[in-house]
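User: Can you model how T4K sits in this protein?
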Amino acid sequence: MKTRNTGPPETDWMNDLLRRYRLAEPVWVTRPTMPPLEKYTEQLQTIWDVRWLTNNGQFHQEFERRLAAHLDVEYVSLFCNGTIALLVALQALRINEGEVITTPFTFPATTHVLHWNRIRPVFCDIDPVDFNLDPNGIERLIGPDTKAIIPVHVFGTPCKIDAIQAIADRYGLEVIYDAAHAFGVRHNNRPIVRAGDLSVLSFHATKLFSSIEGGAIISRTAAQKQRVDFLKNFGFSDEETVIGPGINGKMNEFQAAFGLLSLDTIDEEIASRRRLTDVYRKGLRGVPGVGIQSDVPGVLHNYGYFPVLIDQEVYGMSRDELYTLLKEFNIFTRKYFYPLCSQFSCYATLPSASAANLPVAERVTKQILCLPLYGTLKEATVQAVCGLFAEFHAGTRR
Ligand code: T4K
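Assistant: Here's the modeled complex, given as structure tokens:
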């Protein structure tokens, strides 16, 4: 079946599909979870009353405390966003030269923070099942300038943390996990954000758990947290002492208040996403050429994303054709993560960015598609998306 750039193919079959499946309202890949407005208004009233807007206010302190309890960790440092948190994590471990081994299959922030810290990214290929940095590829990339490894728990699936740690220990490397997608994920009943030297979370509006914009560094020791806290506040240790070249990475009271309310509903949000994930899995399991991920034994997942892999040969349509066609039905999926970070013009000339070095990532980036998933998404919409996937495939066989 051929698709045009300007719209769907004009056949009776397609018109019939449009009549049956086109959604009245656009459905986006995600929607933020909104706390009850009255509760947020109450908090705004408090902010107005106390006139404390940022710089470690009462909501910030409470959010940090409650988050630590919720995540089952000791040391949380809140940030204005996940990107600045990643930037500071590198500074906190004094990684500001040389090379860092990382994955190309991630949001640009993971690689850009290396560049901003004057570090050369070295791209390592990914695992075809969990889409995370493949530990088997790390060792051959280690050289005299290698300082650290930055893996990403892509779509919330835990990296192979034991294998990565064993390599890091063998070569004396630091490990910083980009845990932007991994809020609340546990592996063998242990929070995944306890892995490595530091872990970094994002609380962006598009994330499962949000504080509008926001992020956090999870430290392993009190001393690490103290350094992180100095660095995110210009390096101030007291009113008159600057202990190092810090930055402004602070979260404000409006974000912290929103985050606190999001904590009240996070379990419900995950439960609904889990139900919807089951509906997707049942609906798509029988559609040839659509690869879906399964739960990993021993992992408590957070169901933050629903990625699928489209095998054009078997499905009969490419990922890009499907992405474009779904828009005609008011379904707005996203190609997370296409292109690869190694394909950006600023990194494409690095030796490790060559396609030959990254065969799995190069394939996955062409096939990946994230389908709409958020707590208030209707089950009927998920069923419609699955129905369309099956209809498109059947159509390509005609
Ligand atoms: N590391 C990783 C692995 C990451 O994925 C990210 C961020 C980071 C680091 C950096 O963390 P932050 O500095 O962002 O805290 C979005 C997010 O902006 C980004 O936070 C996230 N990853 C990435 C995966 O997704 P876009 O450019 O796709 O977002 P956008 O604006 O196109 O939104 C997607 C959909 O969400 C829209 O089509 C509709 C819906 N939406 C979005 C917003 C902002 C809403 O319904 N309401 C909203 O307010 O990057």
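A couple of observations from the model: The chain has two domains: 8-32+266-397, 37-261. The CA atoms of residues 205 and 212 lie 5 Å apart.
User: Helpful, thanks.
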